[in-house]
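TICKET: design request
STATUS: open
ATTACHED STRUCTURE:
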């Protein structure tokens, strides 16, 4: 078995101008440089020799074709939508807003995020001259990967055998297993099995991203503090610029680099209607816009599924806004939600979370002073038949804006519970991961490159950040089980944001909820 590494373009759409293989031939264990159009890789007898060769190989690239915007949210607001869809038009929201006793408006922004798995992608591929190919990797979707690799290698599907091996959690990353495509091209070029291990920088810089989103909201309140109308407009990069399964070669970065077009982009919106919205509001108008990709192919900003696609972004907006409405009505946040839902299961998770957390019933924000202040917040969500209510308790250091989440309480109803221990563990993991996404995670980039490429520039939740986590399971043997792998990721960011507001009286409307953003909101 040999080892491989891939040298990425200088920026999105940069074309290869030349490679000087002589620059690495003296490296002990070096075997070959592989070049196909814009795909450049090295193969060596050891992993370290491959790493060294990839670093020292002299490669000349042309100017990047893409120029990413300095302010992605301004770009999203000014760009002409590629697709627009009306999700719901119920009653007359516009007229109700025009005559409202009180009107509340807000805009919320969610960043590009990376999968940031503990283990970057890894694959071993053994390609033979007759096209018979064996692939060992942790792909989420081996059958789809088989088809994509077969297309890229130019062999029939049945010549490719994908063997699933246990790997680090992927959260959508391994739906389009780019590392396997890298290894496949290198193995095809040298006629021997090749192992490719992406680095942390490879994974964060060039892996698919969860898309950025903007959600604009407006609501009408009557004289009694009831919500009589809501308007929602979302703008988002589609989460399927590369389909989260590699069933066509154009989904794979390596295939794009050798000239196969990415023609597989779909439309995936931030929605607020039907199965995603638990409240009974008489007048609702919800519209979504898909923004065209920053660059259509060979791009470090390709978007794909990230755990609970668009769920945290939409719920961060809708449930933070629901809290704004409760504050405008001078109502307790849980009581306000209970008053606006007719769904018995939604009410049950809210009340169960409140009971476990010993919720202090009062309006937000909390009245108090001092350098360090505390607060509690709640968020409710519904996904695919699963109901989740999460309560966050936080401390905020006013001088620095630093937020410390002290406790998360999550009430979870997914119908019939088959394995309560596994379910509880899954929810706990969701809460910790989504806490990191709420407080820390944001892909940053300049005009051509992703600049957040390691744990310092793309931090995730550490052991020191993990709060006390409590899970309340509501079992309904009479209801068929629904999903539990992702729904509890959905309300965490909104619950923490609402707790920050309760503690400080300041509202943050852009995630992640960093110390700098909280301090800016405090003024």
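STATUS: resolved
RESOLUTION: sequence designed for all positions
ATTACHED SEQUENCE:
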């Amino acid at each position: 078995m040999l080892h491989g590494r891939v040298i990425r373009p200088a920026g999105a759409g940069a074309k290869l101008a030349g490679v000087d293989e002589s620059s690495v031939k003296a490296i002990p264990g070096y075997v070959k440089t592989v070049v196909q159009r814009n795909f450049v890789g090295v193969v060596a007898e050891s992993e370290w020799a491959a790493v060294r060769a990839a670093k020292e190989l002299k490669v000349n690239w042309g100017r990047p074709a893409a120029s990413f915007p300095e302010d992605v949210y301004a770009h999203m607001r000014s760009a002409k939508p590629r697709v627009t869809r009306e999700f719901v038009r119920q009653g007359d929201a516009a007229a109700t807003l025009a005559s409202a006793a009180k009107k509340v408006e807000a805009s919320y922004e969610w960043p590009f995020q990376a999968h940031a798995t503990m283990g970057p992608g890894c694959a071993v591929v053994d390609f033979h001259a007759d096209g018979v190919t064996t692939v060992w990797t942790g792909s989420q979707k081996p059958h789809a990967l088989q088809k994509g690799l077969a297309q890229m290698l130019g062999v029939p599907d049945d010549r490719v055998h994908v063997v699933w091996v246990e790997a680090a959690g992927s959260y959508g990353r391994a739906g389009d297993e780019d590392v396997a495509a890298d290894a496949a091209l290198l193995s095809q070029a040298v006629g021997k099995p090749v192992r490719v291990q992406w680095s942390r920088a490879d994974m964060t810089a060039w892996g698919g991203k969860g898309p950025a989103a903007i959600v604009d909201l407006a609501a009408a309140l009557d004289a009694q503090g009831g919500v009589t109308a809501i308007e929602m407009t979302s703008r988002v990069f589609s989460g399927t610029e590369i389909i989260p399964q590699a069933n066509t070669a154009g989904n794979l970065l390596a295939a794009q680099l050798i000239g196969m077009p990415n023609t597989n982009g779909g439309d995936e919106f931030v929605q607020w209607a039907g199965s995603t919205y638990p409240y009974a509001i008489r007048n609702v108008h919800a519209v979504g816009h898909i923004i065209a990709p920053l660059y259509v192919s060979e791009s470090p900003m390709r978007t794909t599924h990230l755990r609970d696609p668009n769920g945290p972004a939409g719920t961060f907006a809708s449930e933070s806004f629901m809290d704004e409405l409760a504050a405008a009505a001078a109502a307790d946040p849980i009581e306000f939600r209970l008053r606006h839902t007719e769904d018995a299961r939604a009410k049950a998770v809210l009340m169960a979370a409140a009971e476990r957390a010993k919720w202090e019933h009062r309006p937000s924000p909390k009245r108090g002073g001092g350098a360090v202040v505390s607060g509690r917040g709640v968020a409710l969500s519904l996904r695919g038949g699963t109901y989740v209510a999460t309560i966050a308790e936080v401390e905020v250091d006013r001088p620095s804006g630093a937020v410390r989440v002290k406790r998360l309480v999550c009430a979870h109803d997914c119908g019939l519970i088959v394995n309560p221990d596994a379910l509880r563990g899954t929810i706990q993991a969701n809460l910790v991961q989504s806490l990191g996404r709420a407080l820390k995670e944001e892909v940053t980039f300049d005009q051509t490159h992703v600049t957040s490429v390691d744990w310092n520039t793309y931090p995730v939740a550490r052991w020191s950040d993990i709060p006390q986590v409590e899970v309340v399971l509501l079992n309904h043997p009479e209801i068929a089980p629904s999903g539990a792998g992702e729904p509890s990721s959905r309300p965490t960011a909104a619950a923490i944001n609402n707790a920050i507001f309760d503690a400080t009286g300041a509202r943050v409307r852009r995630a992640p909820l960093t110390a700098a953003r909280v301090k800016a909101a405090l003024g």
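CLOSING REMARK: The two ends are 59 Å apart (CA to CA). The first strand starts at residue 2 and ends at 7.
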